[in-house]
Amino acid sequence: MTNIPLQQLKSEYSNCTKCKELCNFRSQTIFGSGDLNASVLLIGEAPGKTEDEQGIPFCGASGKILQELLESINLTREEVFITNTILCRPPKNRNPKKDEIQNCNDRLFKTIQAINPKVIVTIGNFASKTILKKEAKPGITKIRGQVFQLQIEDQKYQVVPVVHPANLLYNGRNPVILEQMKKDFQVVIETTESND
After folding, report:
1. pLDDT confidence of residue 139
2. pTM higher than 0.90, yes or no?
């Protein structure tokens, strides 16, 4: 089943020129990939080098961990939809700037409405702060694996913040961190099933 509003949004943002620095640096906008009518929507931070080259979010080293986490709850990449807080790779993979996040906000919230997922998974601090605003102030480690409410117009969504897979790489694939991440993904699937 095709999702017309999402396809229109993708087309509208394929040549976005709102952020001059990002436009000059990116090779393409990375809109997202997966099931256009997914029950689970994952939102990351920003595309990295590999994503910018291949046009797919989370296709590098972090993507392999994300795939492992999805498999731990019997989901595949094809069954979820993955996008980012911003659509373009920042220079040297720096953090997204406030105005860049702001420029991409309308697209992000319209993406949520077009997919209408049962659960939104915010990956890392930037996605969590963008979606949850004040609830995300303590930082991802304090709110990870909890369920929050997001309201867009008259629609309510369940949001589960999780630690970014890159965190596992920075910590030498520490098995304790991996287990924590798998527990957070267990919350994702339980929340999805409770909304059936």
Report:
1. 84
2. yes
